[in-house]
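Page 42, continued from yesterday. The earlier attempt failed because a stray header line got pasted into the input along with the sequence. Redoing it now with the clean sequence only.
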Amino acid sequence: MKCPFCSRDNTRVIDSRPADDNTSIRRRRQCDDCHRRFTTYEKVEAIPLVVIKKDNNREPYDRAKIEAGVFRSCHKRPVSVEQITKLVDEVETIVFNREDKEIPSHIIGEILMDKLKELDAVAYVRFASVYREFKDVNTFMEELKKVLDS
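This time it went through. C-alpha cells are written below.
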C-alpha cells in the first residue's frame, strides 16, 4: 500500500479489525519511511452493477452520486455524516442483495426516498422535489401532505 503522505511503498499493517458496519475491514497502517499513520478500508469486491437511467442510458453504479444527493438534501439539517453514511450503506446493501447486474435508477431512488423519509422529513421532501421533478407548487404540496399525514 502506497503511503498517502510520502508516496513510498513501504507501509505495514499495525492494527486490523472489522469496521463499524461489519462489512469491511479497517486497517491502521504505518509508513516505514516517514513513520506517519493512516487508515485503509478493505471491502469485498461487489458484482459490477449497471444503472439504467431514465433516458435508457446505462452507466456504472457510483456510490458517490448517491452520497452527493443525500448530502445536498440534508444540507443545514440536524443529520450527521455517520447517519448519511449509514443510510447510503443500507441502500447499497438492498441494491446489491438483489443480485441483478442492471437496476433502473428509479428503484434506487425509491429505496433512497424511503430511507430518507425515516431519517428526516425535510431532507426527504428536498430529495423528492428534485428526484420527482415537481413541475408546480401543487405537486409539491401533495407530497408535503403525504409527509404530514404519515
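Notes: The radius of gyration is 19 Å.
Reminder to self: strip header lines before submitting.
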